[in-house]
Amino acid sequence: MNDALKKYDVIVVGAGNGGLASAALCAKAGLKTLLLEKHNLPGGCATSFVRGRFEFEAALHELCHSSTSENADSVTKIFERLGADMDLHSEDTLFRVINRGEDPYDLTLHAGVDNFLNDMEAAVPGCRESVKELFDLMAVLDEAQEYMNGPSMNPSVLFNKYGDFMRVAAHSFDEVMDAVGVPEKAQRILETYWAYLGVPTDDMNALHYLSMVLSYIGAYPTMPGHRSHYLSLSLVKALQDHGGEVRFNTEVTRFLYDGDGAAIGVVANGDVIYSKKIISNIIPNNVINRSDPEKIPSHAKKLASARKLGMTFVSVYLGLDASMEELGIKDYSVFIMNGSDPREQFNTRKDGSIYVVNCLNKVLPESSPKGTCTLFFTIPVMPGDFPETVGARDYKKYKNAVAERYIKDYEKVLGVSVMPHIEEIVVATPVTFARYLATPAGAIYGYANEEWDNVVTRAMLEAVDYSIPNLHFCGGSYIRGDGYPSAYLTGAMAADKVISELKEEK
Ligand SMILES: Cc1cc2nc3c(=O)[nH]c(=O)nc-3n(C[C@H](O)[C@H](O)[C@H](O)COP(=O)(O)OP(=O)(O)OC[C@H]3O[C@@H](n4cnc5c(N)ncnc54)[C@H](O)[C@@H]3O)c2cc1C
Fold this sequence. Notes:
The structure is a single chain. This protein is globular. About 40% of the residues lie in helices and about 20% in strands. It is α/β, with parallel strands linked by helices. Among the domains are: about 220 residues, FAD/NAD(P)-binding domain (3-Layer(bba) Sandwich), CATH 3.50.50; about 110 residues, no CATH class. It contains 19 helices and 18 strands. The structure holds flavin-adenine dinucleotide.
């Protein structure tokens, strides 16, 4: 198809974090950019909702806004590039973890590398040196990771020049902790964050996990002053300020290809719209099932069906008619566990083996009206866990039962009274996420980061796995996995690729 017929340089499908970042950066580079979003507002997961007098954060517990490496791109740098405001507020504790299984513990870990090492040493005397050694590894790995994310990544250079990186990158976090000699109890504490990446640490790539944990520890967990919705609106503003166009309530139902299999446009709300490049912020499965099967390379179809979908959540959002001080709630983030082993927690998740509760008022005292507070329960589930026997009529009963079970448990563990103070309650399940995000089984983390399908192998095989000309991907279902940073960063990567391809083609 003649490029002159293409009204846009780039169409971005989906206004999640990845789509927003890529669309805004393309527009900033002077490309004629169109962002299409099926929902009536931007953000995807990165949003908020209002019930009564409360505005609830829908997803974010903690933003890793800064990278472990000064040179690497980070969330903050992307927003700065765009002149987009973030209004971040940081929290000095990382988390409180209450393990009521064997060898129980109740610990509060603080942000800042030295504070964290001190907390670890107090919890497990003698562990400091090995934990520090583990953290020091990250500095060595950063350089290699930057090279890997760069435009001229060559696997053989990676193998030859960055031997340490390859040795670590091929192993799980647990294997690397064993190799460094981190004592078992310290290992268990360091594994607490596993559910944020959705895969137990015996199967979770060491580099990926370490990089997340160190970003939180080093840069402190942060939250936007006005919920994730503010971040999403900031990026829409940047897109529009740079001349880009966004259409809400506009679902892409078809991806279009030319005779050579190159992407040339989409069908959205019945309109055919052509562009030189397309960036998909939606999961590849949904691109494939919106495309002529003949145009999709067979390896792409095989990959999409071989991959396991990542974790999803049941979330309970509570608006309470008393302040956190009145209720005796002291922590921002509390992990409550029936035992300390992530694999065991994963296997027994249906028994309530792990959940997280956040009280946003600890970071943002004015995030709810005076004399109130909010709680946000996050309960990890896997696609397929949602009981098939629950039909439309039982759905409300199911949601109430889950909420009641976890609220009562939280009251018991923390010794606080919550039930009598509930003014608003919302329960989201994988069904909710499937409806809002249009992901298979309500997956919110894209594809599971398994040993065979982790960030390193994905980056190395990127060119082979994603080979449709003019079609790029970004977001939680792309190579870096789930999370705000991965989504924004892959959005920036997709934008940079499109910008340079169009420059070359000119
Ligand atoms: C409850 C919860 C808690 C979380 N906690 C954290 C956390 O603490 N820290 C963290 O870093 N991450 C967290 N995450 C994960 C993080 O939110 C996601 O990994 C990230 O936001 C995904 O971004 P994305 O770019 O893939 O877009 P998504 O959020 O998946 O958005 C995709 C967008 O595409 C739109 N869309 C879909 N299909 C179409 C179509 N056909 N046409 C047009 N538009 C379409 C959708 O409406 C949506 O707006 C959490 C997620 C949830 C749900």
